Amino acid sequence: MVKNQKNILKEFGLKIVEQLKKAKNPEITFPLRNLSNIVFDKKTRTLKLGDKTGTRSFFNVAHAKKFLQTVEVASILKKELLESGKHEHLRGVFYMAKRTIPGTNVNIVDDQVESDKALEDLEVITGLSREQMHVSANKMGSIVGNIVLGDSGDTIDCSKLGKGGYSIPSITDELDFKKINAKYVLYMEKAAIYERLSEDRFWQKNNCILVTSQGQTTRGIRRLLQRLSEEKDLPIYVLCDNDIFGAYIYSVVKYGSIALAHAAERLTIPNVKYVGVTCDDIIKYDLKKQLIKLTDQDLARIKQVSEYEWFKNNKDWQRQFKMMKELNGKVEIQALATRGISFISEVYLPNKIKNKEFLE
Prior knowledge:
Blueprint: H1 2-21, E1 27-31, E2 38-41, E3 46-49, E4 53-57, H2 64-82, E5 88-89, H3 90-97, H4 112-126, E6 135-136, E7 142-145, E8 147-151, E9 154-157, E10 166-167, E11 176-180, E12 184-188, H5 191-199, H6 202-205, E13 208-212, H7 219-232, E14 236-239, H8 244-255, H9 264-267, E15 273-274, H10 279-284, E16 292-293, H11 296-306, H12 309-312, H13 315-327, E17 329-330, H14 343-354
Parallel strand pairs: 5-6, 12-13, 12-14, 14-15
Antiparallel strand pairs: 1-4, 2-3, 7-10, 7-13, 8-9, 8-11, 16-17
Helix pairs in contact: 1-2, 2-4, 3-4, 8-11, 11-13
């Protein structure tokens, strides 16, 4: 596979060389990644890039630096990473690209944002993912439960690593699923809830796998969840706060995100279900005293998210958005602790999952 990846990047470079040999202005064509070119595919129910393309040419003053950045990062990926078989962090790629153009005082990149954007452009140009090009990001997640993983020749039994579990790498395509004995996967945005469920051995009592990130889901975790869904046919449940940002996190896992629409096929899980706190739970479990008043930002975000194409015709979610505004408040998952420190693991989640009280 690495050979194919190297060849794809080589072809990218050869096209530029051929243009130069013909005395043409070297030009790169790529799919646009802006909002005007993001479409919601109703058949697959995922966000995708549309057909609009843009060009970047070297002898255009407005394009020259970005053109050079794209070529420089492509060279680093092929020569330094793929040919050596080694991996590098996004920050490392930035420093490798940060050099002064000979004969000038101009750096190819001055900020990591520039090398990151060049890498994202290469993803849409080549069809290769960042992970396939051996670039990693920060590790921001953990997994615990009845799953045995193969990682770089090591065998990791995630049921025998204490309540902290296994630290999920940013590149999860390279993990092998050696053994899985679980009914479903429960993903949560908050590490604090993961720690409560892990300490209570929720995964053992309910025969499942627990996965967490720290806030918004990382690419590596989304890919891991997708692989568990597609390769092992495991249901994926998402546990979030009862606020518009929790709904958005669920939306990203299920439908994809605007920023990563080009990677939708590798990251989205259309059959994922929401098992997080709902407005109905606020009433059912008498959590009104734990409500946090909505801010103007919350209200504006509710309006925006409720108008997303994948939400606007969903009666169940529209009802939740309406109730959020009527309650004029939001509730964090931790509010369930007012019913007992282990209420979430002993009553709330087991009942909700058993009774299939999901939002989709």
